[in-house]
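Final report, results section. Input specification for complex C-07:
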Amino acid sequence: MRIALILTNDWELPGDGSGDFWELQHRPLRQLLQVCQEFAAPLTVMAEVAQQWAHQVHASRFPALREEAQAWEADARQVLQAGGDVQLHLHPQWLDARFDEHRQRWILNCQQWSTGQLSEHRLRSVLKRGKDYLETLLRPVRHDYTCLAFRAGAYCLPPSHPVLSVLEEAGFRCDSSVAPGYRQAPYYDYRAAAQRVAPWYVSRWDVQREARYSGQILEIPVATVKDWQSPVLRRSLGLHGGSRVPAREERWWRAARQWRQAHYPLHQHPHATGSHATRWRWPRKLLHRSPLLLDYDLLPATHFVNLLERLALSPAARACVDRHGFLPLVVTGHTKNMPNADNLVWILEKLRRRWGNTIEFWTLTQAIQTWESAHAEVAGTDRFVSDVVPPKPSMNFAEATA
Ligand SMILES: [Zn+2]
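Structure output:
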């Protein structure tokens, strides 16, 4: 069994623009890089660029913002120097950001929440600019660096057709915005994802559909696993998905939750209509299993490793390894969600102990390139032949937001 684990990290300030760059991005990123180097597990940073552009626009008037923007660039370069990867992440609410000088805070356009909401013209300019910006910034560190992959902010990609067309046109080769089984009305509903575990070449009409032959954009989804989600059991018994976690992990998990609440309380979330993680309809949650993101900042280490193991041993995972020779698994985290890197250290220690060399750690770029070369022979001339007939939209964004 060959599992390639890709540790991604969405690197950004909270969704309403609050928070301190040094505490929520700079310091924890440096910690993560150190841990990743110790375990020879490269980190793939999904760098949110619109926040950086907003800082650069105001840098000449506000020295503090200039310092942050400069440190952001130095940090991104450091990721590459440490053997990691940097790919594009975008939260469109930052594109029209204003800085309130008196209150020293950002005012974002939180009505512009989904990447697919942007006009095609704007999408084209923003995605191309993001790719160019990262390549110009990072090629002096690694001459062959290429920005190949995209992740939509808060996984809000749909409607996906315009985004996919522009990604293709701009030379991207991968998207990693789909969390199979997840949904958040009115932004996305990924319950119809073509695969639960394995990557797929997307139909140009819908990121969830598989291209009939081989498409241009490869979707490497963010790993999710169905699990019991009972906050009552968690709190009262210290159980996580049926696993009893060691006391130190339980303590860390509780402290991390309080830390997140202190930095970004729920009432500040612009779209606190609820994610699966925050909106407990607990009687239902007690009785149903729903998809959980493999997030190394939100799950205690033991729980994370058990779920990863369950996913890696699932029939879908085995089928992927049999067919493609390996299974790339993208897991995720956020520097803004971690008070320190202890949880990731425990996860990596457990994985090394339990899995040894069976598990490899790759960057997202490595995963894309390996998948593509494995497919070059199979796909042959069929590559780029995608569906010609648009399907019915799985979700009508305009209707849903009306
Ligand atoms: Zn994000």
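Residues 10, 12, 48, 89, 91, 153-154 surround zinc ion (CB under 6 Å). Residues 274-280, 379-402 have pLDDT under 50 and may be disordered. This concludes the modelling results for the funded period.
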